[in-house]
Amino acid sequence: MPDTPSPAVLISEVGPRDGLQSVKAVMPTADKFKWIDALYAAGLREIEVASFVPARLLPQMADAADVVRHALTLPGLTVLALVPNLRGAQAALAAGVHKLTIPVSASAAHSLANVRKTREEMIAEVRNIVALRNEVAPSVPVEAGIATAFGCTLQGEVREDDVVWLATQVIEAGAEESGLSDTTGMANPAQVRRLFNKVRAAIGERTGAAHMHNTRGLGLANCLAAWDVGVRAFDASLAGLGGCPFAPGASGNVVTEDLVFMFEAMGVRTGIDLEQLIAARAPLMAGLPGEPVYGMTPQAGLPKGFVQGAAHV
After folding, report:
1. Does the annotation mark 223 as catalytic?
2. Which CATH number characterizes residue 148's domain?
3. 17-29 pLDDT tens trace
4. What is the largest CA-CA distance in the chain?
5. Given this model, what pLDDT does residue 310 score?
6. What's the total number of domains in the chain?
7. What is the DSSP string of 87-146?
8. More confident: 109 or 65
9. Dihedrals φ, ψ of 146, to 5°?
10. With pLDDT > 70 as the criterion, what percentage of the chain qualifies?
11. In which band, very low, low, confident or very high, does the pLDDT at 201 lie, cut at 50, 70 and 90?
């Protein structure tokens, strides 16, 4: 792919965390290294590589510190980790992560199921994590992503005012940014535009990434809707791996390959080489033999005459 200016959109790969923690099988550590290396070779420069949680709860993440240490050897890569509490943040910062992301659920029911804390307790936890960060690693940004922002399989409707309130609270607690997650795949494009606009009106440029799921086939449409209202960072998972283990029926992250193709076909730079990205499915499938993989672009192939980087906005 020819040299191009800085990407116009940031694609943050979450498969090694969100994807792997949502499948029953445990990918061997050496295979995780190979997969992350392949994602990096494709041009991804932000990867959520692990979550720091007790191994008894998520054995898939038992090697989180080792995975972080390997990812830190890749020049120019921003290494993210998810931390649900202060103990996880302590371990992640000790491992040397570049950025922390904290899941804070807008659904009261999902908050208790996912992190065993109320929403108010999670706001306090964000404050505690920020205080720890300020003390030991002041250069590490903290993102508090609002989970179940568009609906919840446990609770049903999630009030938009609750989402805006929560995003405001976590920013006031010290988080640098707060994005919106369609954890259960219930969002639609009109809702995405409306809610991101409301959140941006409340917290301005601290509005973070769109984390969409393709559970009902609207993942790409919802990403495009977020782009239309100014969102420039998107989470996605190679081969659509993952979902949420604590939200029944919540399957299917947006497929990284399809998201990158959509933006590149529109002339929006991602900095990611599509052919190498599709090739990164091989180490994933080798490390999780028999696990279903998804993606329309890898299945169909790139269109005849498609030249990445030929036109940009």
Report:
1. no
2. 3.20.20.70
3. 999 998 889 999 9
4. 54
5. 59
6. 1
7. HHHHHHHHHT-SEEEEEEESSHHHHHHHHSS-HHHHHHHHHHHHHHHHHH-TTS-EEEEE
8. 65
9. -85, 105
10. 94
11. very high
Query: Is 139 contained in some domain?
Result: yes
* Residue 171 included in any domain: yes
What is the signed CA dihedral for 166, 171, 177, 180, rounded to 10 degrees?
Answer: 0
Active-site residue, selected from the candidate residues 236, 244, 250, 255: 244
Rounded to the nearest integer, the mean pLDDT of the chain is 93
Tell me the DSSP string of 228-295. HTT--EEEEBGGG--B-TTSTT-B-BPBHHHHHHHHHHHT---S--HHHHHHTHHHHHHHSTT-----
On whether the CB atoms of residues 250 and 183 are closer than 8 A, the answer is yes
98 vs 4, which has greater pLDDT? 98
Mean pLDDT value of segment 134-158: 95
Give the separation between CA 310 and CA 280, rounded to whole angstroms. 23
Render pLDDT for 50-70 as a digit per residue (tens, 0 to 9): 999 999 999 999 999 999 999
Give the count of alpha carbons within 13 A of 196, CB side only: 31
DSSP bridge partners of 80: 48, 99
**Which one-letter amino acid corresponds to residue 65?**
A
H and E: helices and strands count for the chain: 12, 8
pLDDT of residue 2: 46
In a domain, 4, yes or no: no
Could you tell me the two tokens for 149? 């922002």
Q: Is residue 2 part of a domain?
A: no
184: domain range?
Answer: 10-300
